[in-house]
C-alpha cells in the first residue's frame, strides 16, 4: 500500500512521522496534505533511505544531478561532484549518465 493510500485512510505512517519531524510540522497535518495531493512522500526504501516530503508549506528541496556523457566520462570527477553536493546539503542526488558506466 502506498503512502497516498494510507494517508487517504487517515493513517499516519512512520514515514510521515519522520518526514514531519524533519519539516517541523505536525504529522497529522502532513498526512492530510498527502491525502489531498498537496504534498507527496516518495518513500521507496530501495531508493530513499529517509522519508522526504515535497509540497505546499514545506521547505524547498535541492536536487543535485550528476552523470557522464558520451563526450565526458570520469568516475573521479563524478565522485568529486557528489562530495560537493553532499557537503552543500543536497536533499537528493540523481545519476543522469548517458555515457560510460558509473
What does the model show?
- With 102 residues, the chain is an alpha+beta fold.
- Helix content is 38%, strand content 12%.
Brief summary:
By secondary structure, the chain is an alpha+beta fold. The protein has helices spanning 3-8, 14-23, 27-36, 75-87; strands at residues 39-40, 54-55, 63-66, 92-95.
SSE order: HHHEEEHE
- Gap between N and C termini: 33 Å
Widest sheet: strand ordering: 1-2
Helix content: 25-40%
Shape: elongated
Low-confidence runs (pLDDT<50, min 5 residues)? Answer: none
Descriptive labels:
single chain, 102 residues, alpha+beta, two-stranded antiparallel sheet, two-stranded parallel ribbon, 4 helices, 38% helix
Which SSEs are present, and which pair or pack?
Layout (H helix, E strand, L loop, with lengths): L2 H6 L5 H10 L3 H10 L2 E2 L13 E2 L7 E4 L8 H13 L4 E4 L7
Parallel strand pairs: 3-4
Antiparallel strand pairs: 1-2
Amino acid at each position: 500500500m502506498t503512502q497516498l493510500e494510507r494517508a487517504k485512510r487517515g493513517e499516519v505512517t512512520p514515514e510521515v512521522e519522520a518526514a514531519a519531524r524533519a519539516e517541523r510540522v505536525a504529522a497529522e497535518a502532513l498526512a492530510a496534505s498527502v491525502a489531498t495531493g498537496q504534498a507527496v512522500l516518495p518513500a521507496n526504501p530501495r531508493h530513499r533511505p529517509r522519508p522526504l516530503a515535497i509540497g505546499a508549506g514545506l521547505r524547498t528541496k535541492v536536487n543535485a544531478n550528476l552523470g557522464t556523457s558520451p563526450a565526458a566520462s570520469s568516475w573521479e570527477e563524478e565522485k568529486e561532484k557528489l562530495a560537493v553536493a553532499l557537503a552543500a546539503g543536497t536533499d537528493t542526488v540523481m545519476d543522469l549518465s548517458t555515457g560510460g558506466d558509473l
